[in-house]
Amino acid sequence: MNGILCMNKPQQFTSFDVIGKLRGILHMKRLGHTGTLDPMATGVLPVLVGTATKACDILPNQDKTYRAAVQFGKATDTLDIWGNLTQQYPDMHVTETQLRAVLPDFIGEITQLPPMYSAVSVNGKRLYELARKGETVERPSRMVTVYDMILEAFDEAEQTAVLTVACGKGTYIRTLLSDIGQRLGGDAVMTALTRTAACGYSLAQCLTFEEVAAAVADGSIADKLLPTDSLFSAYPKLHLNAAQERMFCNGVKLNLARLRDLQEGQDIYTVYGMQNGFLGTAAADWERQELRIGKRF
Fold first, then answer.
1. Distances (CA, A) of 155 to 72, 89, 106, 158, 188
2. Which terminal residue of the chain has fewer beta carbons within 10 Å of its beta carbon, N or C?
3. pLDDT tens-place string over residues 226-283
4. Helices 209-218 and 15-26, packing angle to 10 deg
C-alpha cells in the first residue's frame, strides 16, 4: 500500500501515537506524517504510507487551517487551558469591536516566540523536555505567516471567542492567541483546537481509527488511500512518452527540448509515464537544458 491516509486525530494522541496505532492496525511499519499536531488538538493529520514516506522532506504545500477557541483573561505555562494557571486578569474585558480591531495586526508575516511546551529543538533538546523539568531557556523568535483570520463567534459575557486561522508552516496557534490577548491588555489561553485542513487535505477526507480498522477487515483499505501525487498538486504535470519514461526510470537526464508540457519559468514538475502513471518529481535546469530527477516514487 502506497499513498496518503488522512486521519482525524483524536485528543490526547500525539502525532507519533497515531503512527504507532496505525502500524498495529495496518500491520506495516513504513508510515510517516506531514507535521506534528498538539496532543490536545484534533483534526487533519495526513499520514504517508509506503513509498509516500519519501515525500516527507519535499512537501510543496505545508499550509494549514485551524478552528481555535480562546478564553481571555487567563495565562498558563502551556498557553492552553490544560496547563498550570500562572496568572489571571480579572479587570480584563474585551469587546468584539476591540478584538476585531487588533486581528489585522496579526495577519501577514509576523514574529513568534515558540512556546516552551513545543517540539522545537534548542541546543539539541526539545523545548517540552526542558519545560517538564521546570526549565525555561532563551529561544530565537521566528517569522511565520498568517494568511487570514476570521472571527467566527464571540461571547462578551464569557470572554470567549472562536477564530478560524489560515497559516503557513511553523505557526503556533497557542502563541498567536496569547499574543492577541496581550495586545488587548492581559493574556489569553487556547481552549480547543481543530485542524480543518493541512497540506491540501480537508477534514472531510479524514478517517477515524475505527474506520481504518473496518476497512482493513473488509479489504477496502487500499481504496481509502489518496494517491501520492496529490501531495504535489501545486506542481504542473509533465507527461513522458515510453522511451522517455524508460530513461527517467533509469536515472537518465532528459533533454528539455524534447519534452512537452514545460512551462516557462517553472522549475519543479510532477512526472508521469505512459505505463506506470505517476513516476515522481523532477526539476528543469534551464541553463543546461536538462530535466533532473527529484524523487522517484
1. 11, 17, 21, 5, 14
2. N
3. 999 999 999 999 999 999 999 999 999 999 999 989 998 899 999 999 888 999 999 9
4. 20
Q: How distant, in Å, are the alpha carbons of 47, 226, 246, 278, 291 from that of 281?
A: 19, 17, 15, 9, 10
For residue 38, give the C-alpha cell: 498538539
Tell me how far apart the alpha carbons of residues 159 and 88 are, in angstroms, rounded to a whole number: 13
Q: With a cut of 50, list the residues of the chain below it in pLDDT.
A: none
Q: Is 10 exposed, middle or buried (0-12, 13-18, 19+ CB in 10 A)?
A: middle
Residue 29 has φ and ψ, to the nearest 5°, of -100, -25
Which residue, chain included where needed, has cell 483499505?
Answer: 221
Are 203 and 44 spatial neighbours (Cβ–Cβ below 8 Å)? yes
Three cell numbers at 263?
512551462
Residues marked as catalytic:
38
C-alpha pair distances (Å), 215 with each of 7, 53, 204, 209: 13, 21, 17, 10
22 residue type, one letter: L
Contact 31, 49 (CB under 8 A): yes
Nearest to 228 by CA among 9, 27, 61, 54: 54
Q: Are 256 and 263 spatial neighbours (Cβ–Cβ below 8 Å)?
A: no
CB 184 within 8 A of CB 98: yes
Q: What is the CA radius of gyration of the chain?
A: 22
Q: How many CA atoms lie within 13 A of 30 on its CB side?
A: 11
Cell of 161: 471567542
